[in-house]
Amino acid sequence: MLIAPRKRFSQNFLQDKQIIARLVESINWEVGDQLVEIGPGLGALTAPLLARAGHLTAIELDRDLIPLLQQAMQGKGQLALHNADALQFDFSTLTHTPGSLRIVGNLPYQISTPLLFHLLKFITQIKDIHVMLQKEVVERMIASPHTKTYGRLSVMLQYHFAITRLFDVPASAFYPVPKVISAFVRLQPQSQVSLVQDYGLFGNIVRQAFNYRRKTLQNSLRDWIDGVTLERLEISPLARAEQLSVQDFVRITNTIYTQRRIY
User: Fold this and answer.
1) Mean pLDDT (the chain, rounded)
2) Residue 113 CA: distances (Å) to CA of 14, 53, 86, 143, 226
3) Burial of 64 (0-12, 13-18, 19+ CB in 10 A)
4) What is the pLDDT of residue 15?
5) Which domains are present in the chain?
6) pLDDT at position 6, please?
7) CB burial of residue 250 (10 Å; 0-12, 13-18, 19+)
């Protein structure tokens, strides 16, 4: 039965079997992995994952799809299905083991960025993330300094993850056909060489710098740090946000944190 996708849920159902097989292989699952699928839709990715892994947790917002998924997945394995909004879902309730959740999914384009930021709250529980996103979003995620696509999303995600763009997916692989090209990407948590001493401050600094990305740092961050201190860090006060590396933002944050503790 053909289900009419709902615009309010930004639904585009994956239907290309070759692409689906490639996605499943890219995830490289192992026996015992705790797979969590966000937005299973009609189960195109759910079915092969469940058949191979034997168990799967899925989070689906559209309640009308729940009985269809339950019926379609009968006999394929153990499916724990949550009718919930992934943007509000507490992923820490799914495990007591650090680094055990393997997040997968074809993310609705309208919520992809806020959902990625939401998943950062559960970084200690996550082993890796494999998701389908709009190609432009992936380009922002993997962008390097001194490029137009480099921004807050780049810095915040690259601080936490090693990000690998696996392959692009044509619009024809979906129903209905979207107006954009998609890309499949892997995010793997990485230990940091230099950790921020105040993560909340780090997020605020990055947000402020890119909110005023056309301004120099001595103007955009003037409420936090002065030009003399930036020069001491070997960062030009006349530089702009897109010229800074992730580690530059870490050093700025830690310097501000230390100064606040002293004074």
Assistant:
1) 91
2) 20, 28, 12, 15, 31
3) exposed
4) 86
5) 7-189 (3.40.50.150), 199-262 (1.10.8.100)
6) 47
7) buried
